[in-house]
Amino acid sequence: MVILRMVKLEDNLGRRFEKLRISLLNSCNFSCVYCVAENFQNISADTLRLSTADRPLTPDEFIRLIEAVHRLTGLKSIRLTGGEPLLYSDLFPLINHIQKIGISDIRLTTNAYYLKEKASKLFDAGIKSINISVDAIDQDIFNSISRHPNTARVFSGIEAAVKIGMDVKLNAVIMRGKNDSQIIPLLEYATELGVRIRFLELMKMGHLYHSENGLFFSEKEILTIIQKKYPIESLPRGHAETANYWRASNGGIFGIIANESTPFCHDCNRLRMDSNGFFYGCLSNAHGEKLSEYIDDDFLLTEKLRGLLRLKQPVKFHGSELSMRNIGG
Ligand code: SAM
Ligand code: SF4
């Protein structure tokens, strides 16, 4: 258990770092079209701006960094993501170490391809809450978005997690002409399963940063589609929630993460770390800060964290050249 030496780390909008998202690795068994560029191999080094000295952290290095940041900020929760976190070989020892630091709220975001066989062990290790990406019910559409031939396994993963008692949320990135036809089937699937689904507006990250964003499908359009079939009522938004929620008349609760249409920067409490140990204060700023050399110096570490806090946008998300796969969505 880490003894907290919390310092006042707050910006003029009252934002603090309370949640840390960690991209455990930047590799993945899927190549979702919105996350991975078609010519990924060619552009990755530039996009990630890695120097040859940068390399994935060891589990020990992850822990020492988490510990140092937690000591000063009193983190409330950690989300393990990637890349695909279920491919990270030291996942279980890492979860165990994070708990020993004194952070018990550990969550995971996954494509669920390997979830069926790992759900029970994850639950026992302390992962009670999980976000699962599922962009279509129709297999052909899902396969073509994920560029993977066998997305059927995702559904058995989702159902295993529900059965074991995890708090499951589904995430679907909606793209014009690709899976906007899947909004109702996804909502109905989630409702039947008794879990919440969040529809995400496409974010201009990584290879999409300089694009026209012709695939963008807005919150308003998503709501229009749902309302044609089910009347909806709006639910109150919780502090620092990324999604706004509604209840549909079929009983389903759905959210929309609308970075473009309904920005939520004003109370963002997230800090991110990538698999090479770079910390990011904001998704809309590609500047990463290596904190490893400051972990024994509370003054300098506080100054660095303050600098990262200053990078948060005041109002609106603009995207950045970093891919979500690298920075950890
Ligand atoms: N592999 C895991 C997964 O897919 O759930 C975890 C990492 S993934 C980068 C985390 C989340 O980021 C996913 O829900 C994914 O849909 C989302 N994401 C990735 N690129 C995105 C983009 N350009 N716009 C919106 N969401 C994106
Ligand atoms: Fe992999 Fe997740 Fe990115 Fe899809 S969104 S390529 S599953 S990291």
Give your account of this protein's structure:
There is one protein chain. By secondary structure, the chain is of the alpha/beta class. It has a single domain, classed as TIM Barrel (Alpha-Beta Barrel), CATH 3.20.20. It is built from 10 helices and 12 strands. A 12-stranded mixed beta sheet has the order 7-8-9-6-5-4-3-2-1-10-11-12. Strand 5, helix 7 and strand 6 form a beta-alpha-beta unit. Helix 2 runs parallel beside helix 3 and helix 4 packs parallel to helix 6. The chain is globular. The two termini are 28 Å apart. About 3% of the residues have low confidence. The site of S-adenosylmethionine (SAM) has 20 residues, from strand 3, strand 5 and helix 10.
Labels describing this entry:
TIM Barrel, 12-stranded mixed sheet, alpha/beta, 32% helix, 329 residues, binds S-adenosylmethionine, binds iron/sulfur cluster, single chain
In helices, the fraction of residues equals 25-40%
Question: Into which percentage range does the β-strand content fall?
Answer: 15-25%
The CATH architecture comes to Alpha-Beta Barrel
Helix and strand sequence: EHHEHEHEHHEHEHEEEEEEHH
| Distance between the ends | 28 Å
Which CATH class applies here?
Alpha Beta
Across the major sheet, the strand order is 7-8-9-6-5-4-3-2-1-10-11-12
Q: How many β-strands, per DSSP?
A: 12
What is the count of DSSP helices, taking H or I runs of 4+ residues? 10
Name every ligand kind in the structure: S-adenosylmethionine, iron/sulfur cluster
CATH superfamily: Aldolase class I
Count of folded domains: 1
**Shape label:** globular
What's the CATH topology label? TIM Barrel
Helix/strand-derived category reads alpha/beta
Average pLDDT rating:
93
The Cα radius of gyration reads 19 Å
Low-pLDDT segments, ≥5 res: 42-50
In this structure, how is the largest beta sheet organized?
A: 12 strands, mixed
